Amino acid sequence: MQTTIQTSEPSNQVTARLLGFWRTFRKNRGGIVGLWMLVFIILVAIFAPLIAPYDESSSAQTSISDIYQPPSANHWFGTDDAGQDVFSNFIYGARVSLTVGFFAAFISIVIGGLFGLVAGFFGGRWETFLMRFTDIMLVIPDLPLMVVIVALTKPSLLNIIFVIGLLGWTTTARVVRSQTLAVKSRKFVLRARAIGAGKGHIVSRHILPLVMPILVVQAVLVISLAILNESALSFIGLGDPTTLSWGQMLNYAFGRGAMSTGAWWALVVPGFGIVWVVLSLTLLGQGLEQVLNPRLDTHHLMPAKPTVRKEAGEQPAGKGSLLDVQNLSIDYVTEGKARAHAVENVSFTLKEGELLGLVGESGCGKTTLMLALLKLLPAAGQIVNGRVYFKGQDLTELGEDELNKVRWSGVSIVFQGAMNALNPVRTVGDQIEEAIIKHLPDFPKANLSARVTELLDLVGIAADHKDHFPHQYSGGMRQRAMIAMALACNPQVIIADEPTTALDVMIQAQILELLDSLRKKLGLAIVFVTHDLGVVAEMCDKVLVMYGGVTAEYAGVDVIYNDPRHPYTQELLKAFPDLTKPKKKLSSIPGYPPRLDALPSGCRFAPRCPAAFDRCKTEQPALHRVGANGHIASCHLIEASK
Amino acid sequence: MSKETFLEVRGLKKYFEAGRPALFSRDVRHICAVDGVDFRLRRSEVIALVGESGCGKSTLALLLMGLEDPTEGMVSFEGRDITHLNDHQRKDLRRKIQMVFQDPYESLNPTQTIEEIVTEPLLVHGIAPNKSERDEKVKKALEDAGLKPAEVYLGRYPHELSGGQRQRVVIAAALVLEPEIILADEPVSMLDVSIRAEVINLLAELRITRQIAVIFITHDLGSVGFFADRVAVMYLGRIVEIGTMLEVLENPQHPYTKALISVIPVPNPRLRRERIILQGETPNPINIPSGCRFHPRCPVAIEACKASDPPMATLSKTHQAACLLLVK
After folding, report:
1. Is ipTM > 0.90 here?
2. What pLDDT does A6 receive?
3. Fold (CATH) for B5-96+179-253
């Protein structure tokens, strides 16, 4: 992050942006290779007269014996059907091929970009007209049409450029249109309108800068396509007869007996040029795409790294506990970066029928902790210490197969935003059935339908909604369906990660009531992950407050709200609105939660803590016991007051 | 122009076409997003518009901003009807009413620096053509929005800032035009609890230092607390109860308001209350129920509620609610 004071010359900003882009791009190996390959061939084309050993028109002095000479010291890559030096022709041919490629692509990009932008931004009739026209152009096969047009007109270089350019814009128009649509619907465009900005301003300042990256990637691909098209046209004899492109070299060699005389060099060399350029552009395009449209490389498809452990664990605690988490620590390991300690030394226990609230702000590690319990961490995540005992069995020691038996039927998770993860083309009942079959393969098929009805009934969805599709469900009902799915295999523990965050207060109340009744009815233990202190006070028995990946405080719900000992808990409560005290002025905690890659050295809350003293800045506080009821808080002040 | 009221909304309606019920049907169905809203706003007053999703509060915001045209009704500002303006007049008005959006991650263009973002409104309106004057205004707006010192932030990009700081940038970009009303659409719902208060406190401060009136749109009655002067509760496109903050929060009269207040979790386990949980969800605004629009979900509905649409019953000089049971 830059903290220096910047002067604000616009040109400086553009340079800075380009420099920033170059710094990222430089690390993309494929892209860099493509770029150098392209620069190399462009330099060759520009300095052709200096590099080529023979002139373009050196055939005048050749005799019959020079035709199809194999490679030799005089002619590195042999000679062609006219006795010309293949290497020289190759170098001059680069000029033609690249010229056609670049100019034709320029035409395509301008037309496609303009069409896409206009159609996407203005919509309505413009869009209908332009996009139907684009569709028609897409349906017509390019190459045959080009052949027809070039054959009917004079096959000059200029004609070829225009024909390729005028036919190659369709994909660009579509790509640009969809990107424009996506950008147009973003809130900052609405904000610009609210400021009073006109259409021109919005297009040039807000839409174009975000369409540009896609256009650049597209341009690179269009160039390679144009070069291929030119080669194809030339190869079938429709090139400009006065110039010699690589396609034309192929055409001449092919048509004039290079194959039968075994003169492979006359075919391989121009072919190599085409491959070289197209390959370089493809690599470059791919590299640009990866840099300009980066996707997160954290995903959940690969199992996380195996557990490594520094310390030996303790034995599982008392028999009453269903889930016993001891000193769990999780790191994110990304190549080239320092380890991020996402969760450190977190412990808690969960008894049957108990409801634990896990409270924390974004980035406090609460979701990571939950995922780690079932080893569902993204690929970069690694459990570095601690144990997770479920009914006395250490889950961190289990392999994927054994874990799969515990997942869902022992502990199941209702993921954050999961209600949007239902498959839209299958009925809800169908999807619940699938979940049952997947996790309980021995479940009698005849009872499946009855079981689904039973589950839906449990979460308050009438049986006649079973065969409805997710879009026929409201948000609250979808969340209920997700809970039904989580209950499918009779788990004893449910982890609910922000299950009501995107829902209205009334629906939230309905879902909370549902979870509470399920807990009573089925004896479920629930871990409720949330940032809403009100919900926790209303529902939970115990509360674990996390901050910056560590336990701030862990105690019974009454203690947390009425006798909090950690300054973070105290400050958080002051920041939370209370309807029963409408006149209370809320106070925010100054500063922001720490980022995982920049954790403070001492206590993680110290930079924002009103009670911090010197020791807090250098030494991370241990977990201290307060009183006898398992109240734990990590703060130096508690040790001092003992 | 009355001394008090400077924004007045009367019978405001917005219907969106929702296609035909059948392929060859003649009548077109409508979504009644906003269905007859009246309220007045005084200078430097804070009014909270509270309601669940689908109650029409966001459409109302767009209508007030002139980003959508109303189907019926009018909005007047400083005594002037601003419902139907041409582009030029509208642009002038934009300076006076500014908006803060819900999602500070989405409402800033990621390719612009903070300086460009805050300068943009000035360029659009051709205010302060001189660069040094412009820089001065931008710095002042940033510092008024709590981003001090402004120089530190000017060259940064939105992604380098935290959520709370981004929301401050959005507010600074509104302040730079010296507006008289700020329309804040769920400005804190995407922020972490510990920093929500700072944005609310900032808005509360601005009404004092700059005499800005605030229309605060939210689904969370709990968060309007000390900061709102008056609260209006919306249900299915209409205001069902309006009153001072204390009247509505401590003495709600409409059954919907009562239910809404009862389900807001209180951060104190010793105060776990009886909740009035309404069953079902807000009906689709295509089919507004007959009579009182709340009657199908109302726990105290009587037979008459199905037939007659209740008028606003006056409970005090400032407190009104639309419920038949309150009409005497």
Report:
1. no
2. 40
3. Rossmann fold (3.40.50)
